[in-house]
């Protein structure tokens, strides 16, 4: 299963965190609102209790009663949600709203003027918020103690809290969406340097840059420095490997040249083994030449560049000095500005082999055509010679590219130029193919295009 991208993970985590934070904040606000409403309700009940106590009066027969009732109509409506109750002189006075019920105050020892708050069951199974006070009436009312209570149905407080949450929900959702979008924008801005790193690594791979550089955010500079150090170490290793390959070439060429000299002397002396030794030495030299070419191309860096037009013009000038080249007409259609990702020496070796073959087999003319095709440069070398039957082209390419598997004589002078050109093309992520022309043969070399180094 494909893992989520870093951006997706951060966006999801940020959205979840914002949602949880907004949800917790909403619950906290709801709790604060509920506490505030309850405090306001208790303050209102305290005022109502003051009004109830202030309305106490004494009749002519000495009976205490509530002469002035609270103005709120809920006290008079049965189960209206607001209730008062007074216990005095063995009697229980209560609001009409209680109907045939009473507030079940718990046994409580209150000092004079003290208040207690309770949550008690009320009429019809409702929950009540109750405030009670114990006072001693003045002398004119008999100086007797009484216990008065005023209660409110808690359903009103719960309804207010629910209404607050309903009003808060859309604003909380809007705030969560805004914060999530802000978080997404912050993540996009924060991860933008990673896109720059990606583009620079791609430029390194295409050979358009040599280093990542240090013009990056401080957190990414150590990473870029390590990558650049790795690139520098690789370039140093490649340089040493090239030197070793050159040393190997020189070390092998001298013994082979000496062996060929000995073979020549044996042939001159009429010894038949001289020709056999010479053939073996030539095969060995061909294999060494080919393998060194492959190794050299494999070691080249992606920063290599070769300009096609100038290199083709130079090769044609050289081959025109040869006997075969001087007798041919040369047509060059290579526009300026075509650059391939290859060392000039490697491209020169591959093209030189193809152009030399074309000059040797042409009847009168050789054409060299180059053009850019997408991410590749196509270079065609076309001669007007006898050509090769289509059914033999594949076999020729196979012999050329696999000369080392055909025995010592197969690689000596037969298909070696094509083999080297083919190996160089493959090492450069390109290709070499042969196609019948009318008349003649077209050798088509395709190599990766490159841009000038930054």
From TrEMBL:
It catalyses: ATP + protein L-histidine = ADP + protein N-phospho-L-histidine. GO terms for molecular function: kinase activity. InterPro entries: HATPase_C_sf, HATPase_dom, His_kinase_dom, Sig_transdc_His_kin-like_C, TCS_sensor_his_kinase. Its main location: membrane. Residues 247-451 form the Histidine kinase domain. It is an enzyme of class 2 (transferase). It is found in: Membrane. The chain crosses the membrane at residues 168-191. Gene3D superfamilies: Histidine kinase-like ATPase, C-terminal domain. Its EC number is 2.7.13.3. Keywords: Kinase, Membrane, Phosphoprotein, Transferase, Transmembrane, Transmembrane helix. It comes from the Bacteria. This is histidine kinase. It comes from Rhodobacter lacus.
